[in-house]
Amino acid sequence: MPPASFKSYDLIVVGGGIFGLSIAYRALKAGMSVAVLEKDRIGAGASGGLLGALMPHMPARWNPKKEFQFQSLLRLEGFARQLEKETGIATGYGRCGRILPLTTQDKLDHHKERSEEALERWHPETTGFTYEVEKPGNRSDWLSAEAAPFGIVYETLAARIAPRAYLKALATYIRENGALIEGCGFERYDEAAGRLATSTGMTLTAERIVLATGPQSFAQIEGITGQMIGRGEKGQALLLEGAGLELQPAIYCDGLYVVPHDDGTIAVGSTSDRHFETAAVDPVRTEELIRRATSFCPQLEGREVLTVWAGIRPRCNKRDALVGRLPGTDRVYAATGGFKISYGIAHLIADCLVAELIGEAPEVHLPPSYHPAFHFAPSR
After folding, report:
1. 0.90 exceeded by pTM
2. What is the spatial distance between Cα 22 and Cα 34, in angstroms, rounded to a whole number?
3. Quick one: 95-156+232-315 is in which CATH superfamily?
4. To which H or E segment does residue 219 belong?
5. Alpha-carbon distance 15 to 17, whole Å?
6. Cis omega before residue 270 (within 30°)?
7. pLDDT of residue 88
8. pLDDT at position 118 over 80
9. 265-269 and 230-241: which strand pairing?
10. For the segment 6-37, what is each residue's pLDDT rounded down to a tens digit?
11. Cα–Cα distance for residue pair 265/165, rounded to 1 Å
């Protein structure tokens, strides 16, 4: 709990996941006084996963959303390195690349077209990032040749980060430069008075607040706007011992990612369940993940399972993230719904939202489908 002299803030961010911490970090950089409220602990929800896959959209049917993610992925390495320098904590960021198997002639033809479009969209002449179709049997020391009878795609834009280490680095910066209050939930915010009530009975004052509570944000937003604009979907992943595989590229096959990390682990995941009874780890799903992953990546066979994770990820009904001031309010903002790409876009989401808060234009603008107007029905 912060001392009494620090109970008034320019901004209070509710939620200690990747969106909330990224926004708080950027707001502190902008000179704002900032507190983060987390009802449990940092990374207790969907952001505390294991995968860390930073994978670009396909270079096809290009649109503002894909351009935004592309720009975010281009900038993330510099952001991660700066954060590491400021905190002394490694984030596990690395440009690993990605393999995609081609299983039919149609897919081969399709991705040949994508490789041509990548020349226009990914600007390899300046970025160095390529999207190439390779012949059958290439890289079969990692992806089974039987899983890719028509060859593979190998692209070099994909990267990975260690989710929990990244959160730790962000949280460390916030603790040193602002306030991070764990075990303290959000109850309500009185806009007129600027007072925020917490689950512990503490009252804070804030000029503005941002709701970044993952799937829980949707009920909070409904309480403010009267509209339910999203839901939670369960995901599950696991971490295997992966010594000797640290330099291999990520694989996306059979709806799963296999992501080598530089600490000698391999992340495998994730499942996606719209309907679920509990957020707890399902042992049957764990066995399924291992079976499916080893079928196309034989080097995973027999490796020790180090840890298993399950969590509920926020997904807006219109799929794209929600970022900005909530309708009918003057001082309440939200950042939620990143679903499977939150780690790749969180730092640029934070740039855009904080730019809105301080009345400046962001370097990269949010896509129209991320704005509140896209997600909420007009008031009558």
Report:
1. yes
2. 12
3. D-Amino Acid Oxidase, subunit A, domain 2 (3.30.9.10)
4. helix 216-225
5. 6
6. yes
7. 98
8. yes
9. antiparallel
10. 489 999 999 999 999 999 999 999 999 999 99
11. 14
